[in-house]
Write the structure tokens for this entry.
Amino acid sequence: MMLSCPLCASRDTEHFHRDAQRDYHRCRHCALVFVPPDQRLGPAEERAVYDQHENSPDDPGYRRFLSRLFDPLRERLPPGARGLDFGAGPGPTLSVMFEEAGHPMAIFDPFYSPDTNVLERRYDFITATEVVEHLFAPGRELTRLADRLSAGGWLGLMTKRVTDQPAFARWHYILDPTHVVFFSEATFEWLAGHLDMRVEFPAADVALLQRR
């Protein structure tokens, strides 16, 4: 069955993998791997999974995890740069880390901080850590975020990346039922070209895209 890619909308897609719970398709155009729409969780089921997360700015281990994006992005920001943490979750932490470093922050999360007014403002940088793999419409959402960036602004994304089909079949990352799209390095390079941005991969699982 040919499905439209939720990132680039191409219908040039192929079946990539099947496990006991779901199917996974791959776009030949942008290399995104995605779960068919009819195999995603509903909003209540999705929220129930997120409610089990226990992330907190008081957790040193969680801060170390986020530092993979925080450290290289902070090095690229001018003093006082304003940011948005998109998909902040039930225990916003990355925004706290940036505020401690002198960067005013806004947060948005469709379940926990759903004030859409913050999505109308302009920012010097936007972060999304362990978020893009949950997006049902990543093409629309990432385009909207890129449009909110000032010239020279940064979009910092952290998500584990697809390598090849054998590794995908063994990958723990696909076992989370809220993970519905999976990016590779090639996917991020396509995205950067589509958004007229440049992309860097400064750390494991991290992609930094800069608006020209």
